[in-house]
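Handout, section B. The chain below has 229 residues.
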Amino acid sequence: MVNTGMQLISFTCAVTGWIMAIAVTALPQWKVSAFIGSNILTSEIKWEGIWMNCIYQTTGHMQCKTYDSMLALPPDIQAARALMCLAIFMGWLSCTVSCCGMKCTTCAGDDRRAKAGIALAGGVLFILTGLCVLIPVSWTANTVVQDFYNPNVPLMHKRELGQAIYLGWAAAVILMISGAVLSSTCPLMERGGRYRRGYIGRSFANSPASAPDPPKPITSNSLPLKEYV
């Protein structure tokens, strides 16, 4: 029962992390304007995402424009596009596989060993999904930090970390932890293919056989008596 509850909690958290990864992919706040030096114009804030650039004004108006050429983009943005799309697909695949391997579902019938393997595969896929989110987010953050402290980069071109970067880190951590917990709920194997814990209860194969009960003595009260004439 506890094992089933851990599966449900980890699966719910993993789905939440996957939804956060989708939001990170769509948000344009990967890089935001840095107001340093003589660049004190705060009436406009420029956002740079992996799909578009946006200019947000303090009056509430916002204008966005998608990138014209993909090949003209920096390498970190190109890699972020590919990896985030891969993460979304792998997250969907992880949810489908994990649903089939959870104890509370009827997929795979009564084959508990098959369900355990499916649940393990779903947990590993969630971990890989978290890695696919972590790599582009960390790469973009490293590029932003290097350009910020590079004296050769003009002040107007310096950027800071946006909200999407922090949301991406949180999504990656949630996905990897949830996948690890989901994988740990699978049973451990012993020699001979018996489960030690998890889907099948403890094995009684090696338990000592109990001695049979000694025969009870037959008394006269246990059998009906017949009178003979």
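Note. Strands lie at 31-33, 44-48, 52-57, 62-66, 159-161. Compare this with the example in section A.
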